[in-house]
Records
---
Amino acid sequence: MAIRSDEISEILKARISSFEAPVVDAQEGVITSVSDGIARIYGLEKAMAGELLEFPGGVLGLALDLREDGVGAAIMGPFEHLQEGDVVRTTGKVAQVPVGEALVGRIVSAVGQALDGKDPIEVSESLPVETVAPGVIYRQRVDTPLQTGIKAIDAMIPIGRGQRELIIGDRQTGKTAIAVDAIINQKGTGVICIYVAIGQRSSTVAQVAATLQEHGAMEHTIIVAATAAEPAALQFLAPYAGCAMGEYFMKQGKDALVIYDDLSKHAQAYRQLSLLLRRPPSREAYPGDVFYLHSRLLERAARMSEKEGGGSLTALPVIETQAGDVSAYIPTNVISITDGQIYLETDLFNAGIRPAINVGLSVSRVGGDAQTKAMKQVAGMLRLDLAQYRDLAAFAQFASDLDKSTRAQLERGQRMTELLKQPQYAPLPFAKQVISIFAGTRGYLDDIPVERIGDFERSLHRYMDQNKPDVEKDIAEKRQISEETDKELRAAIEDFKKGFAG
Amino acid sequence: MAVSEAIARRYAQAYFDLAQEAGAIEEWGRELARVADALADPDVARALANPRLRGAERAQLTTALVEGMLPQAANLVRLLLERGRIAALPALVAHYRRLADRASGVVRAEVIAAVPVDEQAAARLRSTLSQKLGGEVETTVKQDPSILGGLVIRIGDRVIDGSVRTRLQQLRTALT
């Protein structure tokens, strides 16, 4: 260590003499009972709803239950050291979280403390965790695409900036994988991503962080982690904290993406708090306001009008279903709140179709408004074609006995399905997606065997990069396929096919 | 505990409203305090709480207790016994005093200092508090060396903490 010991004491002396300790003026109450992370406090008449309370040992709590003679608080931290008779003080602050640029690239807790072992986070601004969502007057239509880099989504279930799109499926169907790919694809677009992990295993969160780091995505991402070991109060607060962090960027006119992984565990944490606070349980023991829990969170995702800065906050909530039951309580709630869902199925996943998106049940209610013209030109009929293919798929076994047009439809459908498969961590830029789907929908794949489609696509991209880079650039810049580009693209693909060993 | 607190408030509020109407808040308050004292006696309390006491005997005991009391205070005691809420009486008295204070604009403050406070300082403190809080301030001064220095002032739930101990704790948080 190069610092001398007297230098350290000098620093300390300076800090001590410049230390300003304002007189504490707060409300005090006394704990009458504490158990399972909930403390009942006598007194605190002037406590505000959702106010932060200070417990002995520097632990914070959230005042959730305001009663005539006391307050019920959820403790956001260890509570084993608390006893009946301990004094609790108000902080005068309703739950708020640090926000700002300093958080980007970091892993933080639901209250903004650094969890990645680096320097403590210094911010100049805090935003309240709960705010009223922007009203109708302050919004504009969702018209700008948020490219996830996943062909199946960007072509058929396009997401726009400011939209809420639900990712729903059973466990291990690739929900988090879609979210991670979407984050990786935002590199260089100026979109700040916030990944909120609620009730997950710490190992999973660490893996996500490492993956993002590996693909250079941490430099535009904030990870808010309230893992399964954290108190329910922190798991309850985490999504709102992440949303507040995203709103900071939205207010500045920037675009932000927030992913809530997952809201099922969020509802469970809230259920735990509500039952311990003795609030009446309703269906599946969830409290009566579990719908409001999610609706007020998701309504804060918006596309602001130009007058308000033109920023946006896109939300991708994740819900885990049990045995594919989308008609359970929480899934139906969130489906009715969001502007569409991406439905992942275990059967598709096991059959090798990854991402395992069921195109029939998935929908984006913003739809074509969030697509570039180029994508609409190539993928406009894709959904319908695949739907027709699915209807016919049962007949695939009788392929030899069918008429020519039906067989052609089957073959096309098989090839398109194969084309839409995509490996993890390989999001495709929008122009490359257009080229791939162009080749598929214009029939250039019809004579390629299904199992060679993946190779074909990769080789085609390589060919285009080496020999015809202008075509891709043109599509990327103009965002549509002009007649000229169309001709060039066709020529290029035909050229490539001549050299491709089919 | 929490349940009897809310109940005590209701009864106290009713009793206070009547006292206010009668314009005899202080007098009724004193009477109430006397009643509470009488019933605080463990033998009396046990006797009243005895579930084997039959209706007629209980009525007799009650009459003997409330003899010489103000009729309204007596009624209150009878009502509490009837409803089985006699345990709420101490909380009732405390809440009545709070209501009376609020009505007369008196603020009760508890001042805690590490060293003994002389009369001059106490008087200055009282006048400053009256200025800041508005209304008359009655102070009870206590001594507690564990706060190390400075003052801690408690007014109801509100605490104004200027103690050296708290400042040191804040300093520790700032330095670590």
Note: Chain A is about 40% helix and 20% strand.
---
Amino acid sequence: MTCESPPLSARRRAAGPVPKIALAQVEPVVPPSRFALGVSRLDAILGGGLAEARLHELWPAQADDAPSAAGFALLLALKAAGPRRAIVWIEQQGRQGRLYPPGLAELGIDPARILFVNAPDEKALLRAAGDVVRSPAAGAVVIAPAGPAPLLDLTASRRLTLFAERSGTTAILLRNADPHAPSAATTRWQIAAAPSRALEANAPGEPAFALDLVRQRGGAPSYGWMLEWDRDRAGFAPLSRDLAADAGGGYLAAG
Amino acid sequence: MLAEDIWRLDNPQILPARGEGDRDAQRRGGGGDPRAIRPTSIPLHRPSGGPPPRSGEDLPIVFVEKLNNAMRLTALSRAAMALGLTPNLTLADARARVPDLIALDRDHGAEARLLARIVAGCVRYTPMAAAEPPDGAILDITGCAHAFGGEARLKADLAQKLEASGITAICALGDTPEQARALARFGHKAKDLPGLPVDALEADPAVTLALRRAGLKTIGDLASRPRKMLAARFGDLAIRLGRLLGEQDRHISPERPLPPVFGLRRFAEPIGRIEDALACLEELAQEAAQILLERHQGGRRFAARFFRSDGAIARVEIGTGQPTRDPALLIRLFRERVDALSDPIDPGFGFDMIRLDVGQCEALTARQDDHLAPARHEEDLAELIDRLSVRLGARRIHRVQPENSHIPECAASACAPSQMPAWDSAPEGEPPMRPLRLFDPPQPVGAVMSEVPDGPPMRFTWRGRTYGITRWEGPERIAAEWWRRRDRGGRPRDYYRVEDEAGHRFWLFRHGLHETDGTAPDWYLHGQFA
């Protein structure tokens, strides 16, 4: 073994920088195809919808909003994957409860389409996410770490973006708090729950979300969107009919 | 040779006797005494309690089949024969004659399986053993008899073993398969070959009848006639006769298990690098793929063994969700498995042999690639599932299937990722009635305030925070599954969908009812909506 070490390390040195150069040179040649959220003004701000085959990052505004963020991530994955392709849900189990299949069906997501992957730790989560995003098999993948996920840094997000561009899989990174760190994601969103439009007898209505588009590549951020999910139409809609008129800049321009 | 869980019935008339023969072949089976055989694992058919009969000898058992729209007897036990029942009788007539008749459905599949087991057991005498459905077997014992002390002893040994396993069989020796067959099936009617009736030719019944009418009653009568006339009048009868008389030989197709697929490399000098070992494994995978391709098969389980020169053996196994023979995929899975080993493979002083075994083979026919995207995706997905299973363990990758239970935490269960269970879509025009996140077990919540004891919650505390409820719907009462419980009890749950001021939606339930003694039921948070 000792006599083999020098050539081995020499090879590593020689091989080390090559992938980095290759990574730096890979740039998307074709503009990505996009999927519309269904709210025309928001889609216009996004340049025609969210980009497929890219990484998008979401986090809940507060810990209580985590189910809303998970729901929004899954609905984005549903729209990105189209009608046929599989959705992969990679989760590191924490104290957030488990994804409930009948609840998915109630959101309009066929639970049979979802491949559940349970990662024991953050490292395994990241490797599994790399495998899924690199493969063209899945239409969309939601990556949900349990903790602050320090390994999911700028480099990791850049890698996921490059994999996604090559394979055509849309990756959605569902963090559980604002990371306060740079990321190569194409869009970054902060999600909160919003009061729903009440039904008869003051019953809670369709799922409602308050969104802040914190950052998008090549575009301006946009705050204060209030959307609700219309399962029967399989699209988002402005939450309030009154606010639909000025939904362009959000109901609160300042966010 | 055969396990004891077989009992058999004898029905001398059902399957009309047929001939057989072969020079060194020895035929065993139901010549003049064909049988219908069934495993005992069908106690549902037995009329009443008591131990299952070990043998059908003493009971009037008949097997029935639906023929021409009527249930007719097609196989009978000896006891049933003795009572005067005959094959082809309708079941209704048979019951009228013998009220305590035991009628069972005939199971040709079970008979075929038993025959296959018998043939497999006969491989101890010769590698050339073949089944002759429905009820016979042919053994080509050319060159095998001396190992058992001669043909007669081999035959006696076989007969004794079959008898011991409860199989009634008639064994005969012949020069050709047809000769042995004829002697086994019709040998009780004549002493020698020329004395056999013409039925032994097993020709068309009309032909047999015509021969009889012409006065040709035995094989000997027929053999003395010119063959050309027989061929002109009765077609293939001349060939049948030639085979029966041992003038022509027919080959049998023996049942032989395919040898296992494996590849092996020995090294004059042990190799010390795991990379080189994996490169060698890749060559073995390519060889195995070639063998599998020729067989139109793919492997589901692969095991690589690295034999170290000091005697230690490192074993690495992979499994795939679908049969495969793609060497590139295999080697990638093996590399991932090796990388993921908690205890890395130590080459020590080097490996001097590497062996790859394909443990489980399944049919995999070559397929032309088309340009339809969905098919491609499915294949990619199977590959992705395999890779994740190798990396994380198969239990961590699953899909979900619906379960038939009202209890929310039991309404879904994990299933294999290769399955595609069917889920009902939610009814239109309603908001989600089930949460996106479910807590299992439900989380207790405190300080629940209601306007009236049985009313909806107005405020609750969970994880140290208080939530004021502005919207609610309920209750949806889900009763405990009392029919599964020994005490027939269990408290009902009253579920409420509630929303707080900020828009967080929760699924709360009250466990039980308010009792007269003043104890209040507990509240739990079972899930959160998107």
Note: Chain B touches chain A through 61 residues (CB under 8 Å).
